[in-house]
């Protein structure tokens, strides 16, 4: 967990993962295939980060509240110990530190992809 707190060490770890995937999966060792591997890792981080951002923004709160209310009204087996109004909404369950973590790494790896694309097309 201490590794994940140091964002620069984790970024170095991500570049190491990209290099390892490149060495194992690339049919030809060239810049094009390295950019592809970096793209896969970068957009995984961006996808998760943007998804957490949308969840944290409260987009799914109304939908979740409506489903809980509907399930409570329609359910034939009422659970009186379960208070559906007191359950946390999805926006309350996403920690801001995870959101920053995924967006930071996604953006920096994307900048790396764009930089390598500029180098690739200028060669």
TrEMBL record:
Transmembrane segments: 12-32, 38-59, 101-121
InterPro entries: DUF3899
Domain of life, source organism: Bacteria
Domain DUF3899: 35-117
Record key words, sorted: Membrane, Transmembrane, Transmembrane helix
Protein name: DUF3899 domain-containing protein
Organism: Halobacillus yeomjeoni
């Amino acid at each position: 967990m201490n590794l994940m707190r140091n964002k620069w060490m984790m970024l170095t770890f991500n570049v190491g993962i990209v290099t390892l995937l490149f060495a194992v999966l690339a049919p030809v060792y060239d810049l094009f295939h390295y950019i592809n591997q970096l793209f896969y890792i970068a957009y995984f981080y961006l996808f998760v980060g943007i998804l957490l951002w949308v969840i944290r923004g409260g987009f799914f709160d109304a939908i979740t509240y409506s489903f809980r209310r509907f399930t409570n009204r329609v359910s034939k087996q009422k659970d009186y110990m379960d208070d559906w109004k007191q359950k946390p909404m999805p926006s309350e369950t996403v920690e801001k530190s995870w959101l920053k973590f995924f967006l930071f790494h996604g953006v920096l790896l994307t900048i790396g992809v764009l930089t390598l694309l500029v180098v690739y097309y200028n060669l």
